[in-house]
Amino acid sequence: MKKRALILSAIGLAATGLAVSFAGTAEAKEWKTVRVGMDATYAPFESVNEKGEIVGFEVDYAKALCAHMKITCTFQNQDWDGIIPSLLASKFDVVISSMNETPARMQKVIFSDVYYATPPVWMGPAANKSDDVSPATLKGKLLGSQSSTTFANYLQKYYKDSEIKGYPGADEPNLDLANGRLDYVVTDILVAQSFIEKSGNGCCRIIKEIKREPDIFGPGVGAAFRPDDTDLRDMFNKAIAALDADGTYKKIEASYFKIDIRGK
Signal peptide: which range, if any (predicted)? Predict the structure, then answer.
């Protein structure tokens, strides 16, 4: 009986070892193709052109990162409200879509190193010459932003006596401001500049910058991954550092912006 027990034990150990081996193989996934999710309503970072293609700074940056890693990247347009649930449901592998690394999001996903940081701003009608955007002054005013964003969180925290309207996309509040259906919008400074220059026809102006509070806005924007995909996150971090070192980031940045957005 003792000999039989030893044989069974050996078989069990072998089976366990085989299982560990398979588990190790599964964890060491070889990333050859990576699916990138983004909300393409956020020009100039990502938007859809007249050909139906997703274009913008983060598209070019993601392509450069993927080229450095020698992997194929594909791009999927995803509405902002569903972008983290879709990532967690494995509809894509990474979010590269101007997602600020906030404490609340860090409870659901893991982030790469920050690759840009720009200030949020107030945008209002060009005819409004006042720079006073205090909560007392904006009491009863209609304020807009994209919902489920750091901008919306900022408004909800400080402007409880104003009426706050959330939108699915980032371009919709800007259009409503231009058409007189909103009093103010909170958005990113470069998104506001792009809208005023290309679509706003002089409708609006940037009133003032908003200080980045870490608990609301975080330190900046990073790529978001499922919590188990630390290997993919590490690959991106190495590529981010490499593109900083070889000047690729600066070249892409200069093709879109006149200011340094790197945030380092």
Answer: 1-28
Residues 151-202 have pLDDT tens digits of 999 999 999 999 999 999 999 999 999 999 999 999 999 999 999 998 888 8
User: Which DSSP string do the residues of the chain spell out, in sequence order?
Assistant: -HHHHHHHHHHHHHHHHHHHHHHHHHHS---SEEEEEE-SEETTTEEE-TTS-EESHHHHHHHHHHHHHT-EEEEEE--GGGHHHHHHTTSSSEE-SS-B--HHHHTT-EE----B---EEEEEETT-------TTTTTT-EEEEETTSHHHHHHHHH-TTSEEEEESSSHHHHHHHHTTS-SEEEEEHHHHHHHHHHTSTT-EEEEEE----HHHH-S-B--EE-TT-HHHHHHHHHHHHHHHHTSHHHHHHHHH-SS--S--
User: Is the pLDDT reported for residue 24 higher than 50?
Assistant: no
